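Supplementary Text 2. Reproducibility record for the structural model of the 82-residue chain.

All settings were left at their defaults, and a single model was retained for analysis rather than an ensemble. We include the record here because the model underlies the residue-level annotations in Supplementary Table 4.
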Amino acid sequence: MSNTARPIVLPEDLQAFAEERVRAGQNSSVDDVVRGAMQEKKLAVLQHALDEGIAELDAGLGVETKPDDLIDEVSNELGLDS
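Retained model, structure tokens:
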């Protein structure tokens, strides 16, 4: 995956919203607004996954495993196995 920054074009309403946040001093730049929104979304997705996992454990659906086995399983699911 490349770390090369690529400009994005926001829809007019989102651009105006981001610019208003900058004018109001809530963010330092439009990039900062977008970065913050993406971080919030990422955290929301992680929180949802955590909530689902806790609900599964509460329902007795947990499976005991060793840390190394769990790391291997997650790596395989993410395609990180070497």
